[in-house]
Automatic annotation (TrEMBL):
Motif (RadA KNRFG motif) on chain: 271-275
GO BP terms in the entry: methylation; proteolysis; recombinational repair
Domain RecA family profile: 83-234
Keywords: ATP-binding, DNA damage, DNA repair, DNA-binding, Hydrolase, Metal-binding, Methyltransferase, Nucleotide-binding, Stress response, Transferase, Zinc, Zinc-finger
InterPro entries registered for this protein in UniProt: AAA+_ATPase (IPR003593), DNA_repair_RadA (IPR004504), Lon_proteolytic (IPR008269), P-loop_NTPase (IPR027417), RecA_ATP-bd (IPR020588), Ribosomal_Su5_D2-typ_SF (IPR020568), Ribsml_uS5_D2-typ_fold_subgr (IPR014721), Rubredoxin_2 (IPR041166)
UniProt lineage: Bacteria, Bacillati, Actinomycetota, Actinomycetes, Micrococcales
Location of the region described as Lon-protease-like in the Swiss-Prot/TrEMBL record: 370-478
Coiled-coil region: none
Name this polypeptide is given: DNA repair protein RadA
Record: residues binding ATP: 112-119
GO cellular component assignments: cytosol
Gene Ontology molecular-function annotations: ATP binding; ATP-dependent DNA damage sensor activity; ATP-dependent peptidase activity; damaged DNA binding; methyltransferase activity; serine-type endopeptidase activity; zinc ion binding
Domain notes: The middle region has homology to RecA with ATPase motifs including the RadA KNRFG motif, while the C-terminus is homologous to Lon protease.
Organism: Beutenbergia cavernae (strain ATCC BAA-8 / DSM 12333 / CCUG 43141 / JCM 11478 / NBRC 16432 / NCIMB 13614 / HKI 0122)
Length: 478
């Protein structure tokens, strides 16, 4: 029973004021909002980017008062460009990728796998900048190693310079203090994922921390016209670690690539606000440091002078840079029920299609044979223009006939055995002539448009059969 004088019905049926839950969590990538935390963004499907938003939902665009600008807008033709003149780094291959050098105030992100040589390259760049004629002061901030470890590497590669300053810091405020105290003309930060701000929740390398550190460094760079080189980590999938906004904030994004078992290292620009994104820089990583390779042909061509079956040279394009590559093939009798098809440095699917064309259109019997196709020096020939070189190398290995001396083959092979045109043929032929090749097998349609360099004879071929006649004299055709 209820107490006297108490209306039970009124107590139980009193309506509650409806409250709309506020969106207290926000995706750091796309701005999607939700009332509770989730591990995956419901809009962009990114993992680990949903964070608590300070103060819940934020109203945008309400009551914003206009302020007088600190500097009025000026006509575009009157903007001063003296402050953004390119400054060479002293490393020619890196300048090639950057478009001529570093722009004051530019922030460059260099990402790559562990052990590929990022720190070695940037330490060499810092040493060269500190010894240039301008006498620039360089600050190298390391958050991964101690100062002693960096000093040992500097001794090994010959990078000890009096105007190269070294600081081992992992706190953002301390790093900014080092910049103010040293007042450098170049800053190297190794790496952005190891620096943390005390004003931001989370461990170093997290989404919020990386965004806050990058924003603070970029603000200092723009204010002081200070060029900055940032080292970035990569994920297991090869992407740059951290929020995608990091790549949008910086001015230049470079990928440092290389096989652990090869000395060759390549730097390519993925994003560049001041230059092209189709240039590639080649480096040679040795025990004594890293050196630029203006002419990497010595790593990709055997140069032994031995004339033997199963080898054919081609010229691929990596960006705008022609890269000479030697394709080697080996054909042996199969010992198992299913023949082996092994490749290294070439795309296996294209090799399998090329082998099928060889068996269907030429009298090259590969059904019961193991076929191995590889490149020299860790080079990668993944573009279609290397098809004809792969086909001729395999045909040479199977028949035992040697390919004509001084010959280079360039062209894509279709499933019908036709040679299709390739882009950049003039740059490819010029590089072949520079390296001493005397003849080049090219698609017939390409030969009509190409300009043959002096000393290089073009051998037009409309089909794979014609290409084999040019390169392998006496080959029996189907």
């Amino acid at each position: 029973m209820s107490a006297p004088g108490v209306n039970v019905t009124a107590m139980t049926t009193t309506p509650r004021t409806a409250r709309t839950p506020k969106a207290e969590y926000r995706c750091a990538e796309c701005g999607w909002q939700t009332a509770k935390w989730v591990g995956r963004c419901g809009e962009c499907q990114a993992w680990g980017t949903v964070e608590e938003a300070a103060g819940g939902s934020v109203a945008v665009g309400r009551g914003t008062a206009a302020l007088a600008p600190a500097s009025p807008a000026v006509p575009i033709d009157q903007v001063d460009t003296d402050l953004v003149r390119l400054q060479p780094t002293g490393v020619g291959e890196l300048d090639r990728v950057l478009g001529g050098g570093l722009v004051p105030g530019a922030v460059v992100l260099l990402a790559g796998e562990p052990g590929v040589g990022k720190s070695t390259l940037l330490l060499d760049v810092a040493a060269k900048a500190a010894t240039s004629g301008t006498g620039r002061r360089v600050l190298y901030v390391t958050g991964e190693e101690s100062a002693s470890q960096v000093r040992l590497r500097a001794e090994r590669i010959g990078a000890l310079r009096p105007r190269l300053y070294l600081a081992a810091e992992s706190d953002l405020a301390t790093v900014l203090g080092q910049i103010e105290a040293c007042d450098p003309q170049l800053l190297v930060l190794d790496s952005v994922q190891t620096i943390a701000s005390a004003d931001v929740d989370g461990a170093a390398g997290g989404v919020a921390q990386v965004r806050a550190v990058a924003a603070a460094i970029i603000a200092v760079a723009k204010r002081k016209h200070l060029p900055v080189l940032l080292v970035g980590h990569v994920t297991k999938d090869g992407g740059i670690a951290g929020p995608r906004v990091l790549e949008h904030l910086v001015d230049v994004v470079c990928q440092f690539e290389g096989d652990r078992h090869s000395r060759l290292r390549m730097v390519r620009a993925v994003k560049n606000r001041y230059g092209p994104t189709d240039e590639v820089g080649c480096f040679d990583l040795t025990d004594s440091g890293i050196e630029g390779l203006p002419d990497p042909s010595g790593l990709f061509l055997s140069g032994s002078g031995l004339v033997q079956p199963g080898t054919c040279a081609t010229v691929t394009l990596d960006g705008r840079r022609p890269m000479p590559i030697e394709i080697q093939a080996l054909v042996t009798p199969g010992t198992e029920k299913h023949p082996r098809r092994a490749t290294s440095g070439v795309e296996s699917s294209r090799v399998n299609m090329t082998l099928a064309v060889l068996q269907a259109l030429l009298d090259v019997r590969l059904g019961g044979c193991d076929v191995f196709v590889s490149t020299i020096g860790g080079a990668r020939a993944v573009e279609p223009a290397a098809d004809i070189a792969v086909a001729l190398a395999v045909a040479s290995a199977e028949t035992g006939r040697v390919i004509r001396a001084g010959l280079v083959a360039i062209g894509e092979v279709s499933l019908a055995g036709e040679l299709r045109p390739t882009v950049g043929i003039d740059r490819r032929l010029a590089e072949a002539a520079r390296l001493g090749f005397t003849s080049a097998v090219v698609p017939a349609r390409t030969a009509r448009e190409a300009r043959a360099p002096e000393g290089l004879r073009l051998l037009p071929a409309a089909s794979l059969a014609e290409a084999a006649q040019h390169a392998l004299a006496g080959l029996s055709l189907a």
